[in-house]
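step=encode ok
step=design start
structure_in=
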């Protein structure tokens, strides 16, 4: 089992979870970003339910993502977008999404680890 320090998050990880990113239509995602909406709070019960089903390897990856600088995460999202063409990934990779991502990662950390 790899430690958090040994785990690397790549565009393959994003692509493996593509369904998660494409559930929200691009227009709705843009609106959520523009208003800097706390989407984690809206889905808190589903997140907690899903968290209990995570394997240890998946849990380590989630922890790693929560500790990554947002610009690094956005670089990975951009690479995944270039491979898949999914608009939602392009939207999230845009520097204008940084505050939205940061806010929601902080909230996700609170939900999962408090």
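sequence_out=
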């Amino acid at each position: 089992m790899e430690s958090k320090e040994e785990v690397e998050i790549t565009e393959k990880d994003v692509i493996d979870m593509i369904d998660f990113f494409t559930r929200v239509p691009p227009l709705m995602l843009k609106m959520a970003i523009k208003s800097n909406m706390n989407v984690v709070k809206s889905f808190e019960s589903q997140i907690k339910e899903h968290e209990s089903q995570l394997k240890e390897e998946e849990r380590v990856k989630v922890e790693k993502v929560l500790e990554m600088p947002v610009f690094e995460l956005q670089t990975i999202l951009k690479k995944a977008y270039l491979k898949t063409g999914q608009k939602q990934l392009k939207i999230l990779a845009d520097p204008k999404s940084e505050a939205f991502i940061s806010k929601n990662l902080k909230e996700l950390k609170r939900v999962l680890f408090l």
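step=design ok
step=annotate ok -> The chain has a mean pLDDT of 91.
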